[in-house]
Amino acid sequence: MKPWYIKDTDFTQRVSEQDMNTFLRVCPQKPYQKAEIIFHTGDQATDLHVIAKGQVKLVTMTPNGGERILAILGPNDFFGEAFLSANAYYRVDAIALTEVVSCPISRKQFTNMAVEAPNFTLTFAEILAQHMFDCREQLSSSYAPVKSRVAHVLCDQAERFGKNISEDWVKLSTELKHEEIASMITATRVSVSMAIAELRNDGFLEGTRGEYILNTKALSQDFES
């Protein structure tokens, strides 16, 4: 079952300073240590989380007891299912991949925000609407070749969590192993390793074992072609 999340919201840029101060007062930040569980599958979905700092992984357990990563989220991303429904439950585990600071917002707190900062809730609605279009793009990309899907994941991670070292090249240090990338794109570890090797031979990528330098411009063109 697919988790609920929204990436690349530009939340802090889209909300006014006054509304952000109201948000932080109504929905105080909460810290999590690396590897700490934020919520479990089956827990009641009481909060939507807005990530202020760090990275969160959304995972589900495989039949053999392994862990399948469904998404890696970072600052300004939303996750937490349909928190506005009183009977919603989380469908995946959310785990802090690094030290994390999140702003949990409950149904009651969201109602308070609607009263105190109506423009804030309007921004939320706009972000949710954009999410519907993003879902369509994700569905179409799921049929792409493994190499393109790997390029997409690496490019996304580099642009979100990497460090620019030139106009086109980005340095990425990631916790993701080949088998974890494979689980994200529904592929095998061997096929992911082969795809990364091909990208390296193509000159789009350097490095290994979670320490990469990537030509994000070339990678983007590769997975979009």
Short account of what is shown:
By secondary structure, the chain is α+β, with helices and mostly antiparallel strands. It contains eight helices and 13 strands.
Verbal overview:
33% of the residues are buried. The strands form three sheets. A five-stranded antiparallel sheet has the order 1-7-4-9-2. It is of the alpha+beta class and 225 residues long. The two termini are 29 Å apart. The mean pLDDT is 84. It contains eight helices and 13 strands. The protein has two domains: 132 residues, Jelly Rolls; 79 residues, Winged helix-like DNA-binding domain superfamily/Winged helix DNA-binding domain (Arc Repressor Mutant, subunit A, Orthogonal Bundle). α3 crosses α4, α5 packs across α7 and α5 packs antiparallel against α8.
Defining key terms:
alpha+beta, 5-stranded antiparallel sheet, 2 domains, globular, 8 helices, 225 residues, single chain, Jelly Rolls, Arc Repressor Mutant, subunit A, 4-stranded antiparallel sheet
Helix content: 40-55%
**Assigned CATH class of the largest domain:** Mainly Beta
Overall number of strands:
13
Tell me the name of the CATH homologous superfamily of the largest domain: Jelly Rolls
Total helical elements: 8
Beta-strand proportion: 25-35%
Structural class assignment: alpha+beta
Write down the overall geometry: globular
Query: Spatial order of the strands in the main sheet?
Result: 1-7-4-9-2
